[in-house]
């Protein structure tokens, strides 16, 4: 586990862009030679934690000796206090289908969705996670917002007695126009990208990534006279003004997207490949070749008197499937990442990502201040090179995290300064399974490092699963990792977002496992937070779950019967199952 002492002196190539309150374009000031001081309180104890040792290995948990290491880690980073167990349960939220609101701004499959939400209530689910897509709301023209479908969706959740967490998604979804779940950036943004391709990220091969606007042009008026940061801020303000009566009561959380897949990272691997990149062990590519990122890198290199460092990023490898030790930059012994140039580049690259996140956090804090909603940001769960010294796939994504350097603690500190929580996936993944195909992968150790950073900085945590899981072992793994985070004094809150609601969740055996998991997470107090708005909000019972699943089946049976009558093919209907539910795009 990569933990560096906060007092360790390191080379720092600071940010090339001003940390200004204004969202207008700024010039590149001189690079700072010393690390910006955002330190935790002075340490009371000088303790050498085993987490800093290269000999450290194994699993940490309150039940296998992890509490001792946990306490040492907290004392080492200036966090002290008596140890005690968490008594309150953790709420579970369920993420809605990505296409719950269609491109025309209307809620899709209202009857099936209503039945599903009522079933979730009977399971004791706290609420739902609703992705609010920039490419749907502000689709045709800048500053013309269509919130109709999302207002209807929130109203539906409210009637069912569920809370809502909104994810403001400034990225695309899906792999292309042929994908039934395809949601692009707003059309007018794509038009600007056609005029100026450098608005999109680019790697050293000139390949463009259109998932998210390059952070290099955060402050430049590249979007019809507005900067990307201004466009994000205007969107958030309009969201706040539109949903203001519901903020803090129905809508209790807002997660602000900060990159591809909503995660604060570079698109080192396209999101459609990221789901399988850990299988192929892809290294990723540095995304610093659009003209805005390149100009910033050049200016920073000029300011430190090393102009030759400003001509682009390091050459990773001719084949991105190579092992780290087969590359000049990432290899363990003699890798150029440890040279002055390598350290300069990685500090600049990760610093630009941190600055991007800080700019958005600052805007969001100002916009949502006083609304009583919790704000959060999401990090990527990149674990497939965690067992190496260089952690190459993390470095190309913008996380300067190696066996000797903690790259997540600075991000946690930044989020803590603005009152943000932290969200991350991989909660259901286990080392024992992943190491069978990739010996250097370690999702558990990666997640533990992130959880410890969040604990030290006292920021709330939201867990997610990487892909829909319905096995008992995966649920047990989530419980284990949530317990690891929740152990200790005055601990910040923890919640879990289940990814995501689909037809398989409501099948009989899967539904039984899921409801048991929710009870375990919440401490069996499954009706502790029902909303009280009067009207048609009411406490539900298990009979409502049965009725909801019957409603889903009847709707599907009618649809299948209609399809059989109009089709020439001989179709065989699936045997009746009260748990059958579908969220296909048709």
From TrEMBL:
Example of a GO biological process term: polysaccharide catabolic process
GO MF entries: beta-amylase activity
EC number from the UniProt entry: 3.2.1.2
Enzyme class: hydrolase
Reaction(s) catalysed by this chain's protein: Hydrolysis of (1->4)-alpha-D-glucosidic linkages in polysaccharides so as to remove successive maltose units from the non-reducing ends of the chains
Record keywords: Carbohydrate metabolism, Glycosidase, Hydrolase, Polysaccharide degradation
Keyword match Hydrolase: yes
Pfam families: Glyco_hydro_14
Active site per database record: 263 (proton donor), 464 (proton acceptor)
Keyword Hydrolase: yes
The family this protein is said to belong to: Belongs to the glycosyl hydrolase 14 family.
The name this protein goes by in its record: Beta-amylase
